[in-house]
Design a protein that fits this description.
Largest sheet: 11 strands, mixed
Number of strands: 27
Number of helices: 32
Structural class: alpha/beta
Shape: globular
């Protein structure tokens, strides 16, 4: 039983032969792993560990602010803080039941009878909490929230009176489970007497508040369950009372992990733009304006290469120094873009925090390629990890957030994929913990235009909780249409009808300034124009008819390179990119003027192993970057990976037709920097590979499939593609960035697309069907998203994880890990390889028939054969796959 000082001092002892019928002197919460001495951690001691972490988190000013905002009050009352700490203390009250104590059952569903049966709740002391809430229903809902601390509440079918676990709470063999719970309550009353005061406002009922508290509790349970010597080792006889010992441990732990950023903030010198961008660089007008733009959500639209990344870091530095955020999460659209951005952020962080002892860790938040401060890790059995630099215990502790995807958002500074943030808004386990961790940070979403309707709807839902709690967000785009901008700025606060009324007409959209900063004031979007890079380029847009002829594309690129040009060839699909690179090799077998890595001709796309991808990125920037060492012509073939994050500069761009906003992004790599150009490339030129018509795409659409060259698959909307083609016509001059707004709105605005569809349908009725499918697909995408998002306005106990909720965020991609790393095409071992779900729909994850070859290796997954070589990963039976 729990009595007096024994509760506080603990009785950690070795239990020999823990067989059937064994019993600890008092209820236990944790056991050591089987390969360690048979020791145990008392339930009350663990309760104090978790409560101490919750109290430390609640002591953070921003935590109080966020919870208060969600509750609809100005400040979190001290009484509420105490009561929330007590609820955290009671999170594992279910472990007092016989089944758990005898190691034959759990403690979540087993705890439900105490919530639903007064005859059990009253002797357990839980009815003493009724006065904290507006009514008994609210009290039960709060305790159900507490039971969700492992990621989700019990399934609804198991929450009724007849759950079958009531017998586990009856006294037997000298042990009284209900008395054990009552002892926990009594301990809480002794440690937090103010929480049990009869006066004071009841805890709020707002569901969003309880979702946030659950996130705090889930994080507290993770922290408080760490038995490491510098965290919460098992209690030992004779130690200081556990509540006294746990409080300073929790405070130190939060500081070491960066969850308490005050020490870092105090050590941070005054922030100037040079600290972000580099010595001698001054902020452009839009970068200076971004720092003090009215939040909480800001949209920054500026041309590619104008310094949006530095704008984001500059805004973060000021918000952090002012105590308005405790961290930064920089979200990018792809794993590749995230990995490329990490180095830039690390360099800025080193300048912002010149003292290494007071510098936050920069986490690479990419599952399967995680790291911290440039160091990588390898996952081992039993949730252990091994860092490549074998750091000491203190350094490992600082990197805690990098050691698991669910922890990524707990980092002070992290750079990762947008899906890691979106997982805080969909019905997956620990979604609330992700959301709670994220709300502390400035959420930066880069290339926000790249998100489709499905992900945009999830992002709206994430922003609903993030901004509802007073969080800060910055959305970056070179080319954001009016519809997307309106949804992102207002979608989280308006219903569909009000949002439709808020949408600007095409005429209004065309009049919006660019470059610009937008935010919401008094429920309305306010956009202010600011100068970006102050550089204009008049790009000659040339239609080219070789989209289906890889050899012709390769020949044109090679001819330009032989005349001294740096040429980028960007294809919409990996299959077309591989075919073009293979054709290039056939045009010039000696490899002249072709991109190489380690002397091997190759290309750039997303399906390379991480070891090879990093070397590819470095070589691409070395050959096409601002300070490229190589002189003379060169051809680089790739996919969309070349249009995001890499700081590269081409004399000539050859690209497949794609939507206007994406095309502008690609053009951002053309004449990006001021430098001498070879003859014939003095003016920027973009050759756009066009289909003769969209006949193939329309036929595929009628069959429910997609057309060639990514038209109808990678880029589903044929109407937007046709609108873009018309903007190019027989040839055009696009003045960038002056024309950016007009080009995007003419190709994407709903009114423009509707008018185009009507005109096209007059000659070919299939375009009317395409328009209907477009609208239906958009509605279906948003509806599909609505089925998986967290309902912040619904009670936590109704939240149930959906194992398919994260599928479209890449959760079904398979990562192969090779025990005996094969050698890739470039001479380096390949330890792991991601297989996209669409290449492996069966989900097979055990490779076999492995063969090492001179150019790489081959293997099988299920019935599918794969090749990995200098062209990356592809199915063996064809080089032309998406």
């Amino acid at each position: 039983m729990l009595r007096g000082e024994s509760v506080l001092g603990g009785k950690g002892v070795d239990i020999i032969g823990m067989g059937a019928g064994w019993r600890t002197p008092e209820p236990w919460a944790k056991l050591a792993p089987r390969d360690r001495p048979r020791s145990w951690h008392p339930l009350a001691a663990h309760a104090h560990d978790v409560a101490a972490c919750a109290a430390a988190l609640l002591a953070r000013p921003l935590t109080g602010l966020h919870l208060a905002r969600l509750a609809g009050v100005d400040a979190l009352p001290p009484l509420w803080r105490d009561r929330l700490v007590v609820l955290a203390f009671l999170h594992d009250f279910g472990k007092a039941n016989h089944a758990f104590q005898e190691r034959r059952g759990g403690h979540i569903t087993e705890a439900l009878p105490l919530l639903t049966t007064t005859d059990l709740a009253e002797p357990a002391g839980l009815t003493l909490l009724d006065g904290w809430f507006t009514d008994t229903k609210a009290a039960v809902a709060a305790l159900a929230t507490v039971l969700a601390h492992h990621g989700a509440p019990p399934p609804p079918a198991r929450t009724g009176r007849g759950s079958g676990h009531a017998r586990e709470w009856q006294a037997k063999d000298g042990y009284e489970p209900l008395r054990a719970v009552r002892d926990l309550i009594d301990e809480a009353r002794r440690c937090w007497p103010a929480a049990f005061a009869t006066a004071g406002a009841p805890l709020p009922e707002a569901p969003a508040f309880w979702h946030a508290f659950l996130g705090l509790l889930q994080l507290s349970d993770w922290l408080g369950s760490d038995p490491a010597p510098d965290a919460f080792p098992f209690a030992e006889a004779g130690e200081a009372p556990r509540n006294v010992r746990a409080r300073p441990i929790a405070a130190r732990l939060l500081e070491r992990l960066g969850l308490d950023a005050d020490r870092l903030r105090r050590a941070m010198p005054a922030v100037g733009f040079a600290a972000v961008a580099g010595e001698g660089l001054a902020a452009r007008p839009i970068q200076a304006a971004a720092v003090h733009a009215a939040g909480p959500i800001v949209v920054l639209e500026s041309e590619t290469g104008s310094g949006k990344t530095e704008s984001a870091l500059y805004r973060f530095a000021h918000l952090f120094q002012e105590g308005r955020v405790d961290g930064l999460y920089f979200a990018l659209p792809t794993r590749l873009a995230a990995s490329q951005m990490v180095a830039r952020v690390q360099q800025a962080v080193a300048r912002l925090f010149p003292d290494p002892e007071n510098r936050p860790v920069v986490v690479r938040a990419v599952p399967g390629d995680a790291g911290a401060d440039g160091h990588g890790l390898q996952r081992l059995p039993e949730f252990a990890v091994q860092w490549d630099d074998d750091p000491d215990a203190g350094e490992r502790r600082r990197r805690w957030a990098a050691e698991g995807p669910k922890r990524f958002l707990a980092a002070t500074i992290a750079v990762g994929t947008i899906d890691q943030a979106l997982l805080g808004a969909v019905r997956v386990k620990h979604a609330q913990m992700r959301s709670f961790c994220l709300v502390r940070t400035l959420l930066v979403v880069d290339e926000v235009h790249a998100s489709g309707r499905y992900m945009t709807r999830i992002l709206e839902n994430l922003l609903a909780q993030h901004l509802g709690a007073g969080g800060e967000a910055l959305l970056l785009s070179a080319t954001l249409g009016a519809e997307a901008r309106t949804r992102l700025l207002l979608g989280y606060r308006m219903d569909a009808q009000r949002l439709a009324r808020a949408m600007p007409t095409q005429e209004q959209a065309l009049a919006v300034a660019y470059p610009a900063i937008s935010s919401v004031r008094d429920g309305r979007i306010v956009t202010t124009g600011h100068a970006g890079s102050a550089r204009e380029k008049a790009v000659e847009m040339e239609p080219a008819a070789h989209i289906g002829d890889a050899a012709a594309v390769a020949a044109r690129a090679l001819a330009a390179a032989e005349a001294g040009a740096r040429v980028l060839v960007i294809r919409n699909t990996v299959g077309d990119a591989v075919a073009t690179r293979a054709a290039l090799a056939q045009c010039a077998p000696d490899g002249h003027a072709q991109f190489h890595l380690q002397g091997i001709g190759t290309l750039h796309h997303s399906r390379f192993a991480r070891e090879d991808r990093r070397r590819l990125d470095a070589e691409v920037e070395a050959q096409f970057g601002r300070d490229a060492a190589r002189q003379g012509g060169l051809v680089l073939v790739g996919t969309q990976t070349l249009e995001i994050s890499l700081d590269i500069d081409a004399d000539l761009l050859i690209t497949d037709l794609c939507p206007a906003d994406v095309l502008l992004q690609r053009i951002g790599r053309l004449h990006r920097h001021a430098r001498p150009r070879p003859a014939g490339c003095e003016a920027p030129r973009c050759a756009v590979l066009m289909p003769d018509d969209f006949e193939a795409g329309l036929k595929a659409l009628a069959r429910g499939g997609g057309g060639p060259h990514g038209h109808g698959t990678v880029y589903e909307d044929l109407l937007v593609l046709e609108a873009t083609r018309r903007l190019i016509g027989e040839g055009a001059q696009w003045v960038i960035p002056r024309m950016n707004r007009a080009l995007v709105e003419q190709a994407t605005h709903p009114q423009a697309i509707a008018a185009l569809a009507e005109a096209l349908a007059a000659d070919d009725p299939r375009w009317a069907e395409a328009a209907l499918q477009r609208d239906g697909r958009g509605a279906a995408e948003r509806m599909a998203a609505n089925t998986v998002i967290v309902a912040w306005n619904a009670a936590v106990w109704t939240f149930q994880p959906d194992e398919n909720a994260a599928t479209r965020l890449g959760s079904k991609d398979v990562e192969l890990r090779f025990d005996d790393a094969p050698t890739g095409a470039f001479g380096a071992p390949v330890s792991r390889l991601v297989i996209p779900h669409h290449l492996n729909p069966s989900g097979a994850f055990e490779p076999d028939a492995f063969v090492q070859t001179r150019s790489g290796f081959t293997f099988r997954l299920g019935d599918t054969a794969f090749v990995y070589d200098q062209f990356g990963l592809r199915r063996a039976e064809t080089q032309r796959n998406r």
